[in-house]
Design brief:
This protein is of the alpha/beta class. Helices cover 44% and strands 14% of the residues. The protein has an 8-stranded mixed sheet, with helices on both faces. Strand 1 and strand 2 form a beta hairpin. Helix 7 packs antiparallel against helix 10. Pfam families: Cofac_haem_bdg (PF04187). Keywords: Lipoprotein, Signal.
């Protein structure tokens, strides 16, 4: 995972806050390629086969599958789990961080056969790694005529809240405001502490307190929008099981989107599956990892994107300039 060198770049780009996970002591079985994953029960430390995991998720209303964006093993695991859960519960809804709520009509047109894939990718402003990472999930839903929910908050609102603070929503376009949930900045103290600590760590210093707080509010806007979309999906499809994909920070420790969901619908049963980079522990799962989810899956680490720090900074600033094209004054 690329290290973040610029706080300004981080806050402008913050699609998802991520943390670097230290590797655990070597043990078998281990992931031997970037497509491999090893599922583990964090309490017992025992390896699990996919059918066992699926069986234990049978009566779960919402299954959160955390990911490291762009990791081959994470996306393969998501696709296999989605398909296996469908075999057990065909009434399934796929909800995704990777599409924003204002793009739901475009996504629906694609699912209805009114757009080609390239048209959908362009019109819905799909993530750059859509074809490599999320195409199997959406294609499975398309093939089996399953709903796909665009869960994330509109990009303009997230970016502008991050720059100008939560009051920006009162000045935002009315059509975008209408898509937002009640209490869009609901949060919990442990999540705030975790988020600000992560930003401070990436910045290698305390940073600007106001910008830190605005970044946190932007993160909450994402989380609460996704949570409200899950609640709506279950209301629209009674008895369905929602499979939700998101960056792991949004669901780890049952914080973020999970906490926002529980605040809105405490009666729902929720399970969180979180990735860990490194080897499966030889004896027991460390507490820091154990608390991340109801189930864990271990992945091989990706290679560093940059060994040259100057080139890394140049790449980050290029992305920062592209993100800055959003105009918060209109």
């Amino acid at each position: 995972m690329t290290r973040i060198l610029s706080f300004a770049a981080f806050t402008a780009l913050a699609a998802t806050a991520c943390t670097t996970v230290p590797q655990s002591p070597p043990a078998e079985p281990q992931a031997t390629s970037l497509y491999d994953y090893r599922i583990v029960d964090p309490d017992s430390g025992q390896a699990m086969a996919l059918p066992q995991l699926v069986s234990e998720l049978q009566d779960t209303d919402v299954v959160f599958i955390g990911e490291f964006h762009g990791h081959n093993g994470a996306h393969l695991f998501q696709a296999r789990l989605q398909q296996a859960l469908y075999q057990q519960q065909p009434l399934q809804v796929l909800a995704m961080e990777q599409f924003t709520v204002d793009q739901q009509p475009t996504l629906d047109r694609y699912l209805a056969g009114e757009l080609g894939e390239a048209e959908m990718i362009e019109d819905a402003d799909a993530w750059d790694n859509y074809k490599a990472s999320y195409r199997p999930l959406v294609d499975f839903a398309l093939t089996h005529q399953l709903p796909v929910v665009a869960g994330n908050a509109p990009a303009q609102l997230v970016r502008c809240v991050g720059r100008q603070g939560p009051d920006y929503l009162t000045r935002a376009r009315k059509d975008l405001q209408a898509l937002l949930p009640d209490d869009p900045f609901y949060g919990t103290a442990p999540y705030r502490e975790k988020f600000l600590a992560t930003l401070t760590d990436h910045q290698h210093g305390p940073g600007d307190p106001e910008r830190l707080e605005n970044s946190y509010r932007a993160q909450l806007l994402r989380d609460n929008t996704m949570a409200s979309r899950i609640v709506q999906a279950l209301a629209d499809h009674p008895g369905a099981q929602v499979v939700h994909t998101n960056g792991t920070f949004h669901s780890e420790h049952h914080l973020g989107t999970v906490a926002a969901l529980k605040a809105r619908a405490p009666e729902l049963t929720v399970r969180v599956i979180s990735p860990v980079v490194g080897n499966v522990p030889a004896t027991h799962v460390p507490q820091d990892d154990r608390d991340k989810g109801d189930y864990l899956y271990y992945l091989r680490p990706l290679q560093e994107d940059y060994l040259d720090r100057d080139r890394e900074l140049q790449a980050m600033m290029k992305r920062f300039r592209q993100a800055s094209e959003i105009n918060c004054e209109t």
